[in-house]
Structure formats: C-alpha cells, structure tokens
Amino acid sequence: MWATTMKLSNGFTNLFFSITTILGMILSFGFLALSVKHLPLSIAYPVWTGIGAVGSIFVGVIFFKDQIPMITWVFIALLIIGIIGIKMTAGH
C-alpha cells in the first residue's frame, strides 16, 4: 500500500498521500516486526519483500496501466513460486 501512496504523493508534495505513505510504512514495518517474533528473519524478510514486490507489480499494471513484457511475467511467476517455496520449506 505505501509504495502506491508514495507514487500518488508526487514526491511528497501531496499532504494526504504523504501522510498515508508514512502511516502505511509504520504499519508495514510493524507487521514485519511481529513476523520476526514467530519466524526466522531469513524467512520473514524475503516473504515480506516478495509480497510487496508482487503486490506493487499488480497495482502498477491494474491501476497505473504499466506495461509488462511477457517474459517478465515468467520471472514474476518464478518470484511467486519462490515466495511460496521459501515459506513452505521453512520448517516452522
């Protein structure tokens, strides 16, 4: 969420989206902090960043009409498979 509102803040010139970005970052890092209480950092952080990356891609494509080449979708799929694989094999 915060990456999207950061884009909408126009370089932090739009007060509403700037505040929303900061609040989103605080919440996001708070959830990461909760995650590392229950998961090893080596699992929690890659899953957290991967979910954010994939989410940003979909928001960009759907709402900002970003154009993604077909070959890039292959690597996005591999990223999703990697995130799932990391979580499933974590042994937690």
From TrEMBL:
Keywords associated with the record: Cell membrane, Membrane, Transmembrane, Transmembrane helix, Transport
A GO-annotated cellular component: plasma membrane
Protein name: Uncharacterized protein
SUPFAM superfamilies documented for this protein: Multidrug resistance efflux transporter EmrE
Major localization listed first in the record, in broad terms: membrane
Superkingdom of origin: Bacteria
Signal peptide bounds: none
Family: Belongs to the drug/metabolite transporter (DMT) superfamily. Small multidrug resistance (SMR) (TC 2.A.7.1) family.
The UniProt record lists the keyword Transport: yes
Molecular function terms from GO: transmembrane transporter activity
The keyword Metal-binding belongs to this UniProt entry's keyword annotation: no
Location(s) in or outside the cell: Cell membrane
Transmembrane regions: 15-36, 43-64, 70-90
InterPro entries: EmrE-like, Small_drug/metabolite_transptr, Small_multidrug_res
Family annotation (Gene3D superfamilies): 1.10.3730.20
Record membrane topology: Multi-pass membrane protein
